[in-house]
Write a structure and sequence with these properties.
Length: about 1000
């Protein structure tokens, strides 16, 4: 909105959370972290620097897109930043800065001359100090006289202003990167207009050529760059980059700090007079106001430090976390910070009454030697005007030197007072990045003791002598004001074209690129946290079949699993949402068992609620937290061994009907999935609702059709999943419905009818409905809750079990010798135990082996999908740390059951791998590579019932029929692309031959 400077928004965040060590907030849609606690500030800036070594905009530009800004240490990170800083550091030693002091003296002389001429007028002090710093840094870097005090708009000053201006294009860049942070990884921007860039490159080349051709030796920054070029063969563009970094930092920030310091002195005459006395005392006792003498002015230090404390020139220091870490706050509070997070350090701590007495008062005494100077405040982490730690301002010494020299010059010659034009209290320009005072700072400069002669009508006075800096400056100054400057006016037309191009790009290109950016903004997520994975594709991510539906997404997951065999985890994308596949068995156990508290929710636990979808929302699969615990606790007693045994007689009845049905159809091959669905529908309908579904006598029994519609991935369900895949956050404010309303009403009605019928007739029947009625009596659950429980049992019991049975019968039909061996076991038990019942089936060891091998070979879904509920760190092989953020979908692939690393000849159907001699399933479960029903607290609750009905049906079929695979079955099996579970394409057709 730019109605006020964002300083005030940071201030509000800082002040509103006074008791918090850190505050989480959002810049548009991007989460950022403000660290308020001084110990955390030191952790970010110093102790934990390795995690926060990059500035927030370190990745917006590069050397190709913006040759100058891209070479500024501010915008660099990693090894490039280290190299650039190492190159620049020797230029700012105490001795080198001292050699630049005479250049500052010369500029101070011109500034005093200028002020004397302007004595009758109040001056905008920001403009005055900018003239001063422009002349100083131009002289030190490019060895030119910028002529700021003699020319109205010197070219180098205008170019410097344009470099620092927040132009339309710069604002557009920052707006786009705020909305879509990941665009930084795909496109690099330019902040420095091309003509400004070319101007600075040209003057650097001219300065180099002039100095070399004339064998000039001058101990300035250019001299250092030339020695650096000779030693390290850096290019002229690198030299220009160094020069512009120095120019931009030394010009604008220093002039702003000087402005605020002079404002404070003008506002506090007592402080002003005391500082002037110190200056006069040094003059009287030491002579000149040279670099060494100014360095000994203790009160000047106090004055400048207090201004630096009171007037930060930016509201925050913005760092970017480069590697996920955990900050430890007061009372050992753990504050997880994910890689890529912007962490801001507010300079508002310098205005906090918790650390400074009467913080809004200008009081240099707080930094007196008696109080320890700035040391106690720096050590505490509440004074860092030039930042702190390894990224502390490299040019700090130079900045302080030029500011002190300018302030001393002004106070020595002039008495300061605020002019009425200054808007007090100061406010800040809303459209500027740094804290520029609205309306400027206007000060009256009254001449005190005139140490330099002046004649308004005489151009030959000291001003002229000061302006004569030597042949080096004059020669190059002439080159700037001569033909080359005129010649360089042409790119002004080019910059207009450049700005127009940005406008067109922003308005028109932005519309088209927004879709691209939206889809890809998070594609660097796994790279930033150091996790390997396949490169995602626009629109599809790494699971293209979610949208194309050409193949089952099983094959997408399989490719991810197989392509990264050496990785414990793989980071991939479902469309645009990052997901984490856990490949390592130990990590699988960590997610499902040991670290369950962090992964207690299924991925779609937050898609529905009880209002939007009363039935599906009551299914434990879609619940999490306390609701899941409550619902599971209600259901668990229904699946004890005794209760399931009581239901076995109902299974026997259905088995008789199934046998009769198959014998009637024996002349035809049967779609075994449909046959098994009839069986499980009749079993669960009988156990849950106490009704005969008549699946074997009716063509399309109503309950079977309604059950099918619950499990169908209809258009509405597909649309829901597609929307949540594109926009995961929609789950937080809109809940969906998977169960069609007429299906919902049907199951509620039959539950109500079953309850009424049983109560009206005083029927006692030890089934699942009986458990629900007792639950209703004990806990007063509603009929809608009972219907929810019933539908959960029905949906889980009929569809998944029928699919498991289908694959098991297919495996037996495909392996006659195994089929015969299992039939022999069944016949042997019948002969020795007197028939087939719940107990005798439980003793069939080989049946266990066959079923477990089929469960291993044919998972009914490709992955188990969990949702991380709390930031955590998994520890993989060799101590590798794997950060997982809250909300991340974590998938457990069933492909571990098909991995030759864990199973010999895994594609072979070999029940003997689970023989008692080999330990059954135990060694595989303990290793974390056998999990057909899940594992840990969320292991399938109805597993016992499912196994019981599956075994009973298989025994019935094998006892009565010999199975062979019919030619209608498409071998090898592939899976229906539009179904959630792994349904075989074309069905599984078997021939059932009756046997005695």
């Amino acid at each position: 909105m730019q109605k006020q400077h964002i300083f005030y928004e940071y201030q509000k965040i800082y002040n509103d959370f006074k008791s918090k060590p850190a505050v989480g907030y959002f810049s548009v849609r991007t989460p950022q972290l403000m660290v308020r606690d001084p110990e955390l500030i030191k952790e970010v800036l110093i102790k934990g620097f390795r995690y926060f070594s990059a500035n927030n905009f370190s990745d917006i530009v590069d050397e190709k897109s913006d040759p100058l800004f891209g070479r500024n240490p501010f915008s660099l990170s990693g090894e490039k930043w280290k190299a650039r800083r190492a190159e620049a550091t020797p230029a700012f030693t105490h001795s080198r800065i001292k050699t630049l002091a005479p250049l500052m003296d010369e500029v101070c002389g011109r500034m005093s001359e200028y002020l004397i001429k302007q004595n009758r007028n109040a001056l905008d002090t920001k403009e005055l100090t900018t003239k001063y710093t422009t002349d100083v840094v131009s002289s030190c870097i490019f060895a030119i006289d910028a002529q700021s005090f003699s020319k109205d708009k010197p070219e180098i000053r205008e170019m410097g202003r344009r470099m620092m201006d927040f132009s339309f294009s710069a604002q557009l860049v920052l707006m786009v990167t705020t909305f879509l942070p990941s665009i930084r990884n795909l496109y690099k921007f330019t902040f420095v207009p091309r003509d400004v860039e070319q101007f600075f490159i040209r003057i650097m080349k001219d300065a180099i050529r002039h100095r070399k051709e004339n064998n000039i030796v001058r101990h300035d920054y250019l001299d250092y760059l030339l020695s650096l070029q000779a030693k390290k063969q850096i290019s002229e563009i690198d030299m220009a980059g160094h020069g512009v970094s120095f120019f931009a930092d030394g010009l604008e920030t220093s002039s702003l700090i000087m402005t605020y310091c002079l404002f404070d002195l003008a506002s506090n005459p007592v402080v002003q007079n005391r500082l002037r006395e110190e200056i006069r005392h040094v003059q009287a006792t030491r002579g000149d106001l040279d670099y060494d003498n100014i360095g000994e002015m203790i009160y000047l230090d106090q004055v400048l430090n207090e201004s630096l404390r009171l007037h930060p020139i930016v509201p925050v220091l913005a760092k970017r976390c480069t590697e996920s870490t955990v900050l430890i706050g007061p009372k050992d509070k753990r504050i997880p910070v994910a890689a890529g997070t912007t962490v801001v350090v507010p300079l508002l701590v310098q205005l906090d009454s918790l650390y400074y007495s009467d913080p809004d008062k200008y009081n240099p005494e707080r930094f007196s030697p008696e109080n320890g100077g700035i040391k106690p405040y720096r050590e505490r982490g509440v004074f860092f005007p030039f930042s702190e730690g390894p990224r502390m301002c490299l040019g700090m010494r130079f900045a302080i030197a030029q500011m002190k020299r300018g302030i001393v010059e002004i106070l020595d010659k002039f008495e300061l007072s605020l002019n009425s034009k200054t808007q007090v209290p100061l406010r800040y320009e809303p459209k500027m990045f740094m804290l520029y005072p609205v309306g400027g700072v206007w000060i009256n400069y009254k001449i005190r003791n005139l140490f330099i002669s002046h004649d308004d009508d005489d151009d030959s006075g000291p001003g002229n002598e000061i302006n004569t800096i030597g042949s080096d400056l004059v020669g190059l100054g002439a080159s700037l004001t001569g033909a080359s400057s005129v010649e360089f006016l042409h790119p002004v037309r080019r910059v207009l074209t450049f700005e127009m191009w940005w406008t067109v790009l922003g308005v028109l290109g932005g519309i088209f690129s927004a879709i691209y950016l939206f889809l890809s903004w998070n594609f660097d997520h796994w790279r930033k946290v150091g996790i390997k994975g396949p490169k995602p594709k626009l629109l599809f991510g790494n699971l293209p079949n979610i949208l194309t539906q050409k193949r089952q997404i099983y094959y997408d997951h399989q490719k991810i699993y197989n392509d990264f065999k050496s990785e414990p985890v793989v980071g991939y994308f479902s469309v645009r949402t990052p997901q984490l596949m856990i490949r390592d068995p130990e990590l699988i156990k960590e997610v499902m068992i040991k670290g369950f508290r962090y992964f207690a929710a299924n991925e779609f636990s937050d898609v529905v609620d009880e209002k939007s979808d009363p039935l599906f929302a009551r299914n434990p699969f879609s619940l999490s937290g306390e609701k899941w615990k409550t619902r599971r606790a209600e259901i668990t007693p229904a699946f004890t061994n005794n209760r399931i045994k009581a239901l076995s007689t109902l299974m026997d009845e259905v088995c008789d009907r199934m046998t009769a049905y198959v014998k009637k159809q024996s002349s035809s091959a049967l779609d075994t999935k449909e046959l098994m669905a009839k069986y499980t529908t009749d079993v669960v309908s009988n156990c849950v609702f106490a009704i005969d579904a008549q699946s074997f006598s009716k063509d399309k029994p109503e309950i079977r059709e309604m059950g099918r519609r619950i499990m169908d991935f209809n258009f509405a369900a597909q649309l829901i999943l597609m929307v949540t895949t594109f926009l995961p956050s929609i789950k937080n404010f809109y809940k969906f419905s998977f169960v069609p309303k007429e299906v919902e009403h049907f199951f509620i009605r039959i539950m109500q009818d079953a309850i009424r019928h049983r109560k009206d007739n005083n029927i006692v029947r030890n089934d699942y409905l009986d458990h629900l009625l007792s639950l209703q009596e004990k806990k007063q659950i509603s009929e809608i809750d009972m219907a929810g429980h019933g539908v959960s049992f029905f949906a889980d019991g009929f569809e998944t079990s029928s699919l498991v049975m289908t694959y098991c019968l297919y495996d037996l039909a495909s392996h006659p010798e195994i089929q015969s061996r299992l039939r022999d076991e069944i016949r042997n038990v019948q002969a020795n135990k007197g028939g087939v019942n719940y107990d005798t089936i439980g003793e069939m060891t080989y049946l266990d082996q066959v079923l477990n091998e089929s469960l291993r070979l044919h998972p009914i879904i490709p992955v188990l999908a969990k949702r991380c509920t709390e930031d955590t760190v998994l520890v993989g092989p060799k101590g590798k740390k794997i950060p997982v953020s809250a909300g991340t979908a974590v998938t457990i692939p069933y492909f571990v059951q098909l991995d030759p690393q864990y199973y010999q000849d895994p594609e072979k159907f070999d029940p003997d791998r689970f023989s008692p001699e080999n330990g059954g399933t135990k060694p595989y479960r303990e290793r974390g590579v056998f999990l057909p029903f899940g594992e840990g607290p969320r292991m399938c609750l109805g597993m016992r019932f499912a196994i019981a009905q599956v075994k009973r049906g298989i025994v019935e079929i094998l006892d009565k029929f010999e199975l062979t695979v019919n030619s209608k079955t498409q071998v090898p099996l592939t899976f229906e692309p539009k179904m959630f579970m792994l349904y075989p394409v074309g069905g599984i057709w078997l021939d059932y031959k009756s046997i005695k």
